[in-house]
Amino acid sequence: MANQTKSRTIVVCGAPAVGKSSLTIQFVENHFVDSYYPTIQSAYNKVIRFRGQEIAAEIIDTAGQDEHSILSSTHTVGIHGYVLVYSITSRQSLELAKLIREKILNFTGAEAVPMVLVGNKTDLHMQRQLTPEEGRDLAAEWGCSWIEASAKLHETTTRIFDLMIAEIEKSINPDGDGQGQCNFL
Ligand SMILES: Nc1nc2c(ncn2[C@@H]2O[C@H](COP(=O)(O)OP(=O)(O)OP(=O)(O)O)[C@@H](O)[C@H]2O)c(=O)[nH]1
What GO biological process terms does the UniProt entry carry, in alphabetical order (predicted)? Predict the structure, then answer.
């Protein structure tokens, strides 16, 4: 049915303390969380308008992953797309992002999954360890979207999920124009 609300489940993953919760909360609740409480796992819901359709998004904010705890197969069941976050202030967090993507591909058995690679904490430019090109080039190699963001800026978080929904819809309907813009309710 044309007007039926679609559901899309999105996992936000990445190294510890890169800002997964802060980005998610800024997007869903429109405020910046300054304090740091490591996440176990939280889920958020938000209705997104995409090309005139309402999409019920469930956003799963995962516990930070390191070399020893990189997601589990449950994070790939029924998941439509992945927001993979690193911090532009941490080269190690980008190395971990590479491992996390490999793990996701191993679990799903796919060559590619809908993904947005996000370089967070752009406001901390004095502490930058990674250039924009490093993130952009990696995403080009992977064939996914890439964006730099700050969890302090609501607009950059809406752009992340805009790209995420576009990636998901493109994978489901490869013949679409892929240019749709999202509006967040
Ligand atoms: N300056 C700045 N600080 C940020 C940004 N995003 C997150 N932080 C801070 O970084 C710390 C960690 O942020 P979280 O959102 O808790 O990180 P996380 O990735 O969810 O952490 P885990 O749950 O441990 O994996 C907090 O003190 C945040 O306030 C950002 O864009 N800019």
Answer: signal transduction
